[in-house]
């Protein structure tokens, strides 16, 4: 794979002696209106989350605590990135298979999504996904 298949998004941080504050605004820091927010936590050691792709949904994944790896596949190649900074997210567009693994103890994965949950937007089988994107 010659070019990255997802991009990093850095969110603003306001620092003072009381600590840091990080924020995100739809259409300013996220390139979409944020329609859903959810988070993964207490993921058991060795577990793999996600294991799907979306047809239209865009997401930004953030490691707001700890770290984890995100393995992405566009049907032609694969890349793995580690998220471990709470103000740096990974923008994942539609048409990318994703698996999230290697969760550190106490990690929290926050997800900003462009659409409400819709089961019809998912590819749950990798081979079906790969055939679709290669057409």
Automatic annotation (TrEMBL):
It comes from the Bacteria. Residues 7-133 form the Sugar 3,4-ketoisomerase QdtA cupin domain. Pfam families: FdtA (PF05523). InterPro entries: QdtA_cupin_dom (IPR008894), RmlC-like_jellyroll (IPR014710), RmlC_Cupin_sf (IPR011051). CDD domains: cupin_QdtA-like (cd20292). Gene3D superfamilies: Jelly Rolls. This is FdtA/QdtA family cupin domain-containing protein. It comes from Phenylobacterium ferrooxidans.
């Amino acid at each position: 794979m010659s070019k990255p298949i997802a991009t990093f998004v850095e969110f603003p941080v306001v620092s003072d002696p009381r600590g840091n504050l990080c924020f995100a605004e739809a259409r300013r820091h996220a390139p979409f209106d944020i329609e859903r927010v959810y988070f993964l936590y207490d993921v058991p050691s060795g577990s793999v989350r996600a294991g799907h792709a979306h047809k239209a949904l865009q997401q930004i994944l953030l490691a707001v605590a700890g770290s984890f790896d995100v393995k992405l596949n566009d049907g032609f190649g694969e890349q793995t990135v580690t998220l471990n900074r709470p103000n740096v997210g990974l923008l994942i567009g539609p048409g990318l298979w994703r698996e999230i693994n290697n969760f550190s103890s106490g990690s929290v994965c926050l997800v900003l999504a462009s659409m409400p949950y819709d089961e019809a937007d998912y590819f749950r089988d990798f081979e079906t996904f790969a055939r679709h994107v290669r057409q």
